[in-house]
Prior knowledge:
Layout: H1 2-17, E1 25-30, E2 40-44, E3 49-56, H2 62-65, E4 70-73, H3 77-87, E5 103-104, E6 113-119, E7 128-132, E8 143-149, H4 154-157, H5 160-163
Parallel strand pairs: 1-3, 2-8
Antiparallel strand pairs: 3-6, 4-5, 4-7, 7-8
Copper (II) ion binds next to loops.
Amino acid sequence: MTRLRLICAxxxxxxxxxxxADPCKVTIESNDMMQFNxxxxxxxxxxxxxxxxxxxxxxxxxxxxxxxxxxARDSDMSAIINAGLAAGxxxxxxxxxxxxxxxxxxxxxxxxxxxxxxxxxxxxxGVRYAFFCTSPGHATVMRGTFVLxxxxxxxxxxxxxxxxx
Length: 165
Ligand SMILES: [Cu+2]
């Protein structure tokens, strides 16, 4: 357990080192190979709003290789994806007014980008949320974790009280 926490702290440290100047604005890229370039996204707790920009560095159209970026509780991911599948491509593979979705961009194709801004008030500190793409089949690989954490706190990252759901 201690070793796992150390690894987590190291991962957070690495993430911090590559962060943009404004830690409340995060960019994630996607491509024609059905991939996101990040597995984990961390945002400091002092952000009242978070801006996530999704870029598609590929060339395939949204119909062929469309991606979106959706944030939700880990436990809601499957249900959101299934509801999105039922909604179909016309609705960007997202069910309308799905309350389980914390934030979502539209579906984009190669060369495009989309941005979503959302309040962190819906997020609990230290909880690992899931981000994923709702295009059919993509979330098997296009997924990762999103954590709101204390900016000062590599030490806090190992505090069990902040890691609990
Ligand atoms: Cu995708």
